[in-house]
Sequence to fold (137 residues):
Amino acid sequence: MGEPTHRDNINAELSGFFTSNGSRSPVAGGSFAFTEADMRAIIKNWADLAHSYQDSLRNADRMARIKPPAEDFASRWHAGAANRSGESYKGYLENNQNYCFKQAQLFQKALDEYLDIEHANVTGMNTTAPHSPQPGI
Fold:
């Protein structure tokens, strides 16, 4: 019953992703612009997400240390399968944690480079600009 409204909301949200020439590529002629505050928020979000994965890793460690409830074949087999699944899940969490930390580092590097360029530009303008009003300017 609410499906057309839901579909309209999705279309409205996605409308900015498409260009007027019919191309479905969101990068066709587009650009990104972030403020220093935006960059700092993005860095914090990536780092927070990485720390969340770290917390999940600590909790998931128990998933890879299941002991069989008995010493029969089926109990040992099921505990072994659960432990392999737990190890696989831990690998997934580690991979995502590393990815998030790497993204935070990349954004930090971009911010540092931007701030270095801004600092150099301001310093350059301050050293070359005359310190008093010039006639005719």
User: Anything to note?
Assistant: The chain is about 70% helix and 0% strand. The first helix runs from residue 3 to 14. Helices lie at 3-14, 36-60, 73-128.
